[in-house]
Amino acid sequence: KMNFSQTGMTENIHYCYESMNKSCLKHVYLITVRSPLYLIFVAVILFTVCGNLFVIISIAHFKQLHTPTNFLVLSLAVADLLLGGFIMPPSMVRSLETCWYYGDLFCKIHSSTDVMLSTTSILHLSFISIDRYYAVCEPLKYKTKITVCVALYMVIISWAVSAVIGFGMIFLELNIKGMEDTYYNRFDCVGGCVLIQSEASSTISSTLSFDIPGFMMVGIYFKIFLVARRQARTIQGIVSQSKTSEDGKTMTSSKTERKAAKTLGIVMGVFLSCWTPFFLCNIMDPIFNYSIPPVLLDTLVWLGYLNSTFNPLVYAFFYNWFRKALGMIVFGKIFQA
């Protein structure tokens, strides 16, 4: 994901390390451009960290929120928090200073973690879509099929698979396998942190970590939409014929599950909207001999990062429990006996 030197508003050609051979070029933004961008990026980082921290505290503190769905949401918020706290700040400096000053080892760790977190997010959303499928489409089987234990297994699988993909690809240099000479002659320089992938690597990694889970989510949520619409029509018929208490409880439960599915469907839609442009360019870049402007790739990476910023906003807008919990956290009520 990946960036990095950018063409932009520069006056002179500089190098990241003036005294070193094979230093990367440093493109200097004018101060009138760089300063406002730093303010915007810092605001995004703070909002991402604080928003997801509130989600984590809310679900972890309130026992009534300890459900399989919310444990998946909690783990997703942890991934978003890590991206905001550990990936975004170095990426901000790299994007605006157009150089990497943190060494080769941290570059590999940063790139690996970046890939891991984006992959684990979509795997979490895939499992959440399965959770919502059973809740809406197979409600009688939901409590036996989707338990807290099953949700924890889903969380472990998401993190483990993502770690293997992210760290395995980078540290084993599978991303440049077959194009080592091209990479070291054309892209490798001191002060750069560029994730370059061969055509095979970009296709395989994008397919495994984005395309397959993405298509699966879209298919499942389309099925949920059809079932939810049919249930809504059925409930309307029941309302006109019966007003019993038990029917009322059933209808309320069904409505709650459909609302939760709708909310998490919106989370999925936000994720796909934020990350699809980058993954498309990631596949096309090696096909077109890496001719996509680095500044465009970097912009698309930050669009993907914004997904982690938007998720708490979606929860705040659609979930009453999150708004109530947020109020209790802000005013310190959670510390009261």
TrEMBL record:
Keyword field: Cell membrane, Disulfide bond, G-protein coupled receptor, Glycoprotein, Membrane, Receptor, Transducer, Transmembrane, Transmembrane helix
Lineage: superkingdom: Eukaryota
Pfam families tied to this protein: 7tm_1 (PF00001)
Membrane topology: Multi-pass membrane protein
Subcellular location: Cell membrane
GO biological process annotation, one example: G protein-coupled receptor signaling pathway
Membrane-spanning residues: 37-59, 71-88, 115-134, 146-172, 208-228, 260-280, 300-322
Gene Ontology molecular function: any one: trace-amine receptor activity
Residue ranges of every copy of the G-protein coupled receptors family 1 profile domain listed in the record: 51-315
Chief place where the protein resides: membrane
One Gene Ontology cellular component: plasma membrane
Family, as annotated: Belongs to the G-protein coupled receptor 1 family.
Name listed for the protein in its UniProt record: G-protein coupled receptors family 1 profile domain-containing protein
Organism of origin: Lepisosteus oculatus (Spotted gar)
